[in-house]
Every structure is written in structure tokens, then in C-alpha cells.
Amino acid sequence: MCRPTYYTIAYEINPWMSLRRQINRTRAMAQWNRLHRVLTRTLRARVQLLPPRPGVPDLVFTANAGLIDGRTIIRSNFRFPERQREEPIVERYFARAGFRVVRLDRRFDFEGEGDALWMNGSLLFGFRFRSDAPTHERLARLLQARVLPVELVDQYFYHLDTCFCPLDARSALWFPKAFDRYGRKVIEALAEELIDVSEADAKRFVCNAVTIDQAIVVQEGASGMLRRRLERRGFRLFPVDLSEFLKAGGSAKCLVLRLN
Amino acid sequence: MPSEIVHLRGHIVDSLILPKVLDEIMDLNGTFEILDIDIGKRKTDPSRARLRVQAASHAHLDQILRRLARLGATPIQTKDVRLVQAMKEGVFPSLFYSTTNLPTEVRFRGRWRKVHAIEMDCGIVVNPSTGEARCTPVARIRKGDWVLCGTDGVRVMPLERARAPEVFQFMGSAVSSEKPKIQLIQRLAREMRVIKRAGKKILVVAGPAVVHTGSGPYLERLIRAGFVHVLFAGNGLATHDIESALYGTSLGVRLDRGIAVKDGHDHHMRAINTIRHLGGIRPAVRRGVLKRGIMHACVRRRVPFVLSGSIRDDGPLPDVITDTLNAQDAMRAHIPGVGLALMISSTLHAIATGNMLPATVKTVCVDINPSVVTKLSDRGTFQGIGIVSDAESFLRELTRALHL
Fold this sequence. Notes:
- The complex is a heterodimer.
- Helix content of chain A is 27%, strand content 20%.
- In chain A, strands 1-2-3 form a 3-stranded mixed beta sheet, with helices on one face.
- Chain B is elongated.
- In chain B, β20, α13 and β21 form a beta-alpha-beta unit.
């Protein structure tokens, strides 16, 4: 994770961002701290911290730094120059931490775990708004795995992790309207059990959840119906208010990069 | 129709990207042809596909390509041709691209353009202001011509395999004196009728053996019935045809009796001399001196002919083009629109013609010598059949099959 010391809305690169809707720094820090506490204290996860830097406000969204594979990180190639500034920072941090850093050819846009999620042995890969379709083939070669590219069709759900969330080996949360019929077919074949979320829930970024075993850390405010469905399946929900981060188009999942 | 070849790699089948690409092309009113596809065997193996995408216009094609690029299907060839100016007349730049006889396109200023008058063993000259690409033999290169060099930006379209079995596929280019000839000739006759109806031209290349063996009248019948649109031959065929029209002999042998005539050996010289005196074959026909035969039929039926000279010619007749480069040019002028080339008993002219034809022209080579037939197919005449036979029996059977 990365502390939101310098987090702000400095540009608009997705439909959620508006320079006129600025961040409340104190509140953002409190919300982030709450998330950090839930992960470390309640769920006993170990969290490494990437030092924040001025001028790169979206560094807080560490999920986009790249994709981890063992002790290797496949670094992201950000589509927008505003976030490309994060690339050398990510590289330096991981190199110092003892990771092998792999850089894809510049031609291939790739925004890390934001667009690449493991489900049942295959890597589901979302492309269009930030990552490029041909990148999937590179990833497949590097990871020696099956990578399934699916096109994202709604600009509000511009990263895969905003509309798809693997819960365990069998089930996943998703917002079907964010995909076209091909993508839906692929996802239906991939997950045994899919839990559809409503548009209202989707816009609250419920799909952008951090899952650790049976625990789901998710934006506060999810509908009662969804909460009950998840609880019935044996999941425990940990709602956290991350509304300051929604202003930049991100939530719980975006703020975390899985190292293992 | 404008087209581009794109390729796709990765897990394109499981992810439905490949069917999606094909659906998108169709939704945008384009068409596609899968050139090759290689599907990974294990779950982790990638697949790959190469498709040709076609659209009604360049703008339309660009629209489709932009959409496909987003899905990861990108053109393979993105480079333009390399053009180098010829420094000397009649000399290609050293790295010139040497053509095949297959339909060829070149990419100039981002667009694929068809090469006109494709012929093997030539260079390609591009006009930078119009983008026109033309196949040019080395002897016709002018100083300053922009010649294509290297292989970037060139694509050659392999001929499609015929889907329905037809006479040309049936025989392939196998040469054998042991295949059923009658059936072959009948299928050839059918093919000739189809080509004639389609408005394409039938080119006949004939050697003097056609006259010597007494099959001149059969060729005449083909010409008069409109089954010959262009004739390539040499001094020999024309001379002996005229000799037979004037004297009833060919090389002094009576064609009706097969016996040599006294002093017949100079008949062909007299025939040549007569035509030279009259100024050419056409004047001889107009003046009523030449009244029958192959050349007479050509003039009456307005079938163009090109007579190319060789070093063994007597005379020659005034219509014979003695400069070989000029003769080649004259022949080339008649190639566009030819759908079928029939080469009968002529080694030299058959090979010369075979060299000039694009691979899309169907060719039939008839010769009593198997090595001539093989020689022609070895040169890469793809849609060709060879028939080992003497001219007379072939032409006799062909005219019968055509009900002439």
C-alpha cells in the first residue's frame, strides 16, 4: 500500500475524476488508516509500504503498479503520461526489495493487477480503456499460463477490478453490463458461480473488494441484498468508508497490491 | 477491393477474441478469409491466426482495421516499399526485387496497389506521383525510373486451390503420355467455351509443325469459329501456311498426298518472296493473292498476330518482328485479358510466352516431345497441363470436341 500523504485530484483521466471535486486530506488519511488497520490488525495481513511522493497523487493506487509473480513484478506501462511518472518509482522500490523487474515493450499498455485477476488457474485480463489486448499474449508467455483477454465496454468501469472480483476458486462478484456478450460468455465459463451486482452497487465499487480467505473488505454502503447473499455463502464482510478514493475512481482493491 | 492481412496471437480461442474479430469484420460489412490458423494444444499454449480483411473502400478498411487493432489484430506488413532510382538505362539498381508470375501487390504510401502486367523475371517500377506500379523488363528500364528494391512492402498472392475439380486441377502439371487424352481434350473444349463466353481471350502459340503435319485446316477452323483471339508464331508457321495456300505444299511436301514435289524445296522461298513483294500478309489478303489458310483466317477474322523472328529464319516475311525486344513488347501488349493459352508444337515461342504470362492464365502445352512440356511446367506455370501428342491428332480431336 501507499500512504495518501500527497493524494489529490490533479488531473482527470477517468470519468469519476473532477478537478472541482477535491479531496479532503484529513478524511482521506483517516479512511486509508482505517483500511490499513482492518487489513493488518483484524485480518492479520502483512502490509509493506511504498513511500508516497509529491507530484504522483495516484501512487496510492498500488494495484496498478504491476502484476506480481513470485519474486518477479511485471511492471505496468501506464496509458496516461500522468501515471507514467509512477513507473520509475515502482521499479526502484521493487528492485530494492529484491524483486526481479520485468518491463514489457512500450507498445503494450498494461495497468497491472487493476486489469489482471487470477481465477481458477487462468488470468482474466481486461482491456480497452487502460490495457491493450495484445499484452495478454506477452503475459501468457511470461507467466506460462492461460490468459483470457476480455473487452471492457463501460468507461466508468475502466479497470477489470472495478467490475470483477474473484471471491474464491469457484465464485466471483461481477457487473455483467461492464462486458460484452463475448466477455460474459468467457467469464461464465470461467467461474462456477457468479454473483451479479446491481448497477447501484457496482457504482459504489463493491466489485473493488479485497478478499482474504473468507473475508471481504469492501466499500461501505453495499445493498442489504448483496450483503445477505455474501454472508449466506459464508463470507464475512468488512465495510470501510473509502469515499475520498472514489473521487479518483478507486476503492479498496485499487489501494492494495497483492504480493502473494 | 482494398485488403490487408492481419494477425492475432495469444489465447484467442478461449477468450472468444477470434470469433469476436470475425464477427466485428462482418458487422462492419467487411469480409475476411482465414489464411492460416494454428490452435495451441495445451491450455497454456497460445494460438495464432492470420486473416485477410477486405472492404469496399480504403476508408472503410481503415475503420475496420482500427477496430481490430483494439482487439489485438494488427497488420503484419506495415512498411512501404523501398524505391531506388535506376542510374543507367536498361540496368536495375543492384538490390532490385525480381518478380514471379503470381499476382503481386506493393505497399506505397500506406496503401496496397496492384502491380500491372505481372510477369516473371522482371522488376517493378512505381510512379511516385500516381502510385501506379508496373512490371518492367530490364531492357525497358529508363534512367531515373523508381525501381522497387528489397522485399519490404511486397506481397504475393498465392493462387487459390480450385474448389471444384476441373480439368486444370485434375491433371495438375503432370506430364505424361499415359493419361486419357480424349477426356482431357473434351474438358478443354468445355473450358474454351466458358472462357469465350466470359469475354476473355484465348491465345494460341503455334509452331510450323502445325502446318507440316497437315493440321493447318483445323487451326483455321478454330480461328474462323472465333476460338482464337490472338496468335503468336514465328516466320516458320506463317511461311509454310502461305506456302500451303499458294502451292499446296509445306516445305515442298504435298499436304494432300504426303509426297515431295519436284522443285518443291523452293516453294517456301517463293511464298516469302511473293509476300515481300506485296508488302505484307494483309496486303496479300486484300489483293486476293492469299486466299486460304491460317494467316488468311486471322486477317479476315481480325485476329491480331505477332510473328517473332529467330536466327534461322529465311526471308523473313515483312510482318516478322526481327528485333527480339520489340517482338517481346508486341507480345506483351496482347497479354491483358487472356484467360487461356494454347501452345502447340512450338518450343521457342511457348517458353517465351510462358515467361510473360501471369500465373492466373491457364495454359495447355501440346508437344510431341515430353521435355518441352516439362520445361514449361518447370518454369512455374501453375495452372498448366501438358499433353504429349503430335499437333495433328490434338487439333483434330479438339475441333471435333468443339463441334467444328
